[in-house]
Amino acid sequence: MSLIKKDSGKIFINNYDMDKNITQIKPLIGFMPQEYNFNQFETVIDIITNQAGFYGIKKSEAIKNAEILLKKFDLWEFRFSISMSLSGGLKRRLMLIRSLIHNPDILILDEPTAGVDIISRRLIWDYLKEINIKGKTIILTSHYLEEIEKLCTDVAIIHKGNIILKTKVSNLINKINDKIFILEIENEKKETKQIELLIKKTDSLNDELNLLIKNKIIIKNIKNKTNDLEELFIKLTS
To answer: Which among 27, 70, 23 has a CA at the least distance from the CA of 52?
Structure first.
């Protein structure tokens, strides 16, 4: 993105050399930082249309595009609100809209759903999947590993500044050998307890559950202990 100077090497974006063609490259990229970095005293609509102006988009066109995106992310009713009055989830949506207003080919998103509510997260996920299918390249960083599993085709795990694994998400999931389930059980005395059940990928969960049932143990609830990728991440980095 040319925000800092690289130490070495070459960067090409859509066949443009960053050292020679930065003017052509900048409009190709949309960036959503982790921290809020818009004017807290500007209105929502002004933040978006001013951003479009940096890319030479006429205000009339910017307003039309902003209306589409604001309605898509349920922000239309807040278009004249001062940005500092928005909730954290609405601010995240605003930052994503701002990164999209010039219709870039490439989106770089830094923790796009950090600290947002479930509704905002789902809105963002659904939209990212939609535009990715239509051909946009999306690079995101996330500590929320369910997000990686649901959105990404490729993943790189970074630990202490080094890439320790780079592969397809599907390949990563295939590396998971164990699953840990939390079972809420009730015994004959109607006492409720929780137990952890570790299952090898090659084993059948049915066999383990049938064994409990045969011993007159009632299974009241069952859930995964953690996201599968989270377990693998912990193993790779610990």
So the answer is: 27
Q: Do domains 12-141 and 176-237 have the same CATH topology?
A: no
The domain locations on the chain are 12-141, 176-237
Please tell me the distance from the alpha carbon of residue 151 to that of residue 50, in angstroms, as a whole number. Answer: 30
CATH homologous superfamily of 12-141 equals P-loop containing nucleotide triphosphate hydrolases (3.40.50.300)
- Specify the fold of 176-237: Ubiquitin-like (UB roll) (3.10.20)
The structure tokens listed for 24 are 């052509």
Q: What is the pLDDT along the chain (238 residues), one digit of tens a residue?
A: 888 888 999 999 999 999 999 999 999 999 999 999 999 999 999 999 999 999 999 999 999 999 999 999 999 999 999 999 999 889 999 999 999 999 999 999 999 998 888 888 888 999 999 999 999 999 999 988 788 888 999 999 999 989 998 999 888 777 777 778 888 988 777 888 898 888 887 788 888 888 888 888 888 888 877 666 777 777 778 7
